[in-house]
Amino acid sequence: MSADLRLSDHEKALYSRQMRLPGVGEAGQLRLREAKVLLLGAGGLGSPVGLYLAAAGVGLIGIADPDKVEVSNLHRQIIHGFDTLGLPKTVSAAESLGEINPGLKVALHPEGFTVENAAELVSRYDVVIDGTDNFATRFLAADACVLGRRPLVHGSVLRGTGQVGVFLPGAGCYRCLYPVIPDAASVPTCADAGVFGATCGVIGSWMASEAIAVVLGRRRQSRLCVVDVEAGSSRPLAILPDPACPCCGASATIRTLDKTAYAPVVCAPPSPVMSATPLEISVEEASRLLAGPNPPVLLDVREPDEYAVCRIEGSRLIPMNTVPTRLAEIPADAWVLVQCHHGGRSMRVTQFLRSKGFARVTNLQGGIDAWSLKVDPKVPRY
Ligand SMILES: [Zn+2]
Fold it and tell me: 201-255 pLDDT, tens per residue?
């Protein structure tokens, strides 16, 4: 082993507490040192991601962000400070990272992550971490990672909830879960919905942990964790490749990054038609609402054979793959609660319907299985 393939005594001292973790050791620490990680967005999520990856000894961090530091950023974007107000976020972030780890190499991409540079940037890094706050860039990152065969760590925050996703090449991508880009107006952003900095800290730190796990080769499956900081809960969702996925499926239609496919919408302003309807609710909450004076329409998107096994009283069956051709059967003016077996398919349908202009659509968390476990044990499980 040559000298540059070993850790120095200084590095051994610096990383001793993480090197003693099972599966890390000197070999793992060297993998981290060799790793080239691209961070999209040096904001609320990118701050903890960058800080923790730098502290963990990742060798090269690229930062793509076209914005400047503003005072309204500082309550959550802890990589910046009052002394860097007005500076490009890439410059401000690089300063903080250099203080944490003077040996770190930082590459700045102040032009941001765009349709023009996405494929080239992705090809230069081993892992892409998306902490951006708009759908156009999120889908661009997802598609660029599929086309460039790079793992993607994704994160998003909305009020007191968030998501952390890991999408590995060939193991299911972001579009397997969310096939189409929703209208920017259908989902609120931090600018209009509000967010606690600490919530970004939870999700961003989780993203950093996942990125480290990916670098160390400890992830074998794509997955998404839905985190509710208010409720104190998190729920992992295993993701399987969708054969019909428009990006990674057998008949994928997304073969190149087409400029027209990614509308350049950054943090859309508050919209009067913005949905205040929650993205997900628990089965207990759903049970209360369904028994109330104005119950939501319950839409079951499972297959007919599953519906024959069990159903929630009053539900309407429209299997997921028929939803796009049966939109007229779904009331546009009512609150629609979407339900499946475990909550995965129904989340996809929820996102799809919102993208089609149905503003009041909510996913039933945990599906009919959770309903059976927590609300009505008479409903058979399968
Ligand atoms: Zn896919």
Answer: 999 999 999 999 999 999 999 999 989 998 899 988 888 888 889 999 988 999 9
Domain co-membership, 202 together with 148: yes
The CATH code of the domain that includes 90 is 3.40.50.720
Q: Which amino acid is at 183?
A: D
Q: Which of 230, 261, 292 is the last residue of a domain?
A: 261
Q: What angle do CA 176, 284, 373 make, to 5 degrees?
A: 75
The CA-based angle 313-314-317, given to 5 degrees, is 105
Question: Which residues are annotated as catalytic?
Answer: 190, 340
Which of helix, strand or coil describes residue 63?
Answer: strand
Distance from the Cα of residue 375 to its chain's centroid: 29
What's the 172 CA to ligand 1 centre distance in angstroms? 5
Contact 40, 113 (CB under 8 A): yes
Find how far residue 19's CA is from the centre of its chain. Answer: 28
Give the domain range for residue 327: 280-374
64 C-alpha to ligand 1 centroid (Å) = 24
Q: How far apart are CA 21 and CA 28, in angstroms?
A: 10
Residue-wise pLDDT for 95-129, tens only, equals 999 999 989 999 999 999 999 999 999 999 999 99
Distance 248 CA to ligand 1 centre (A): 4
Same domain? For 286 and 248 the reply is: no
Q: Which of 261, 293, 309 is the last residue of a domain?
A: 261
For residue 204, report the distance from its CA to the centre of ligand 1, in Å: 23
pLDDT at 269: 36
